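Task 17 of the worksheet. Students: predict the tertiary structure of the chain below and write it out as structure tokens. Keep your answer in the requested format; marks are given for formatting as well as content.
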Amino acid sequence: MEVNILASGSDGNCVAVRSGQTTILIDAGIAKTKIEKRLLEVGIRPDEIAAIFVTHAHSDHIKGLPLAAKYLIPVYATYGEWKCIAEPEEKDGVVEVGKGPCFFDPNGFTVTAFKTYHDAYEPVGYTVTAGERKASICLDTGKVDPEMLETMAGSDIYVIEANHDPSMVEAGPYPDSVKSRILSDIGHLSNEQVAVTLGSLIQGRGERIYLTHLSKRNNLPALAEMTVKAALRRRGFEAGKHYEIEVV
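Model answer:
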């Protein structure tokens, strides 16, 4: 299984997951033409995308959905998020949380949704499995609960947001209302929250971690990476030996 982060952050999010002959996108939050270009740069033809899965309907996650119309790609989302995407009769697939896989292809590539906590109607993250390989994609959530941990456990790849450092948010220029939203349980994960989460998930068997959706104003890549590494070091795991980490 291969993961390519085509876009990450407040300007747009798009993740390509590929295994064998099957490729899907998790979110399409940048312009259609940019998605096409970045897919080609990593050796994926846009007309080969099997499906697009939406985590939630904020613009930085759905801006590029015209790609689906151009290449006749089915789009999947929870019913709550479809309210912001299309009329019910226009939808290709409804994702139901807790009802088993929402996508399955003959090669054994499956996608399953899990509940997240964000200021949207019905946001989700996704696990993707192919053979014995598993990836978890958790992009926007204000907290991680035990059910989310259980669902993501055992993954070989973790794509998870490390959005902010709380002290930088507090000292930053945003209005208090925006600060409260970011720091709330339906906002975004802090570096420390991600560190605690990964500390519970990583087993030191060569997992690959992608830290994504970093705020330009409220975080620093080195700070996010350092915070996660410190938490995993306390569990006896060293980067490059027990796991790999990349800040996107």
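Marker's comment: The longest strand covers residues 109-115. DSSP finds nine helices and 13 strands in the chain.
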